Amino acid sequence: MNKKVAVAGSFTIFHLGHMKLLEEAFKIGDEVIIGITSDKYIKKKGYNVAFNLRKKVVEDFVKKFKKKYKIISIDGPYDYVTEAKNLETIVVSEETYTRALEINNIRIKKGLKPLEIYVVKMVLAKDGKPISSSRIKRGEIDIYGNILKK
Predict the structure, then answer these.
(1) pLDDT at residue 16 is higher than 80
(2) In this prediction, what percent of the chain has a pLDDT beyond 70?
């Protein structure tokens, strides 16, 4: 059976947490649908990294898995996954687990099968706090979680 898995993010500053999320998606899926938030969506979040650049970084990383994948532009966390009929699993971080539950509620209301939810633990920086694009943007840590300022 071909297990189709979805994973999504803004991938504005590609970091170790993103790498782990994608690695897990490719570990459990035969085909991975990667949703990357649109330029319009991330501008609302205070970032300005073009979709095509973010897509290229993700693509360069996932090519090594030698599995079928598709990268799509999404306008928010509920785009695509609440509509796709042939999806089986959604891969999320601990931080976005409740969103996955909301997605399943929407799917059920639309008469679609709920997705299996696969939760990936947050990758922690050397200070024990989660690695995030916002922390990297503020100059607290680098993309691998090393501390940059005290």
Answers:
(1) yes
(2) 98
Q: In what order do the strands lie in the sheet with 116-120?
A: 68-74, 31-37, 4-9, 89-93, 116-120
The span from the CA of 37 to the CA of 51, in Å, is 7
Predicted model pTM: 0.93
What angle in degrees, to the nearest 10, is found between the helix axes of 51-62 and 16-28?
60
**What domains, with CATH codes, occur in the chain?**
4-121 (3.40.50.620)
Secondary structure letter of residue 21 according to DSSP: H
pLDDT given for residue 46 in this prediction: 79
Residue showing tokens 């687990």: 97
* CA-to-CA separations, 112 to 74, 79, 80, 108, 132, in angstroms, rounded: 19, 15, 13, 5, 32
Indicate the range of 20-24, 43-47, 124-128, 131-135 predicted with least confidence: 43-47
Burial of 37 per CB tally in 10 Å (0-12, 13-18, 19+): buried
- Element housing 35 (H / E): strand 31-37
Q: How many CA atoms lie within 13 A of 96 on its CB side?
A: 20
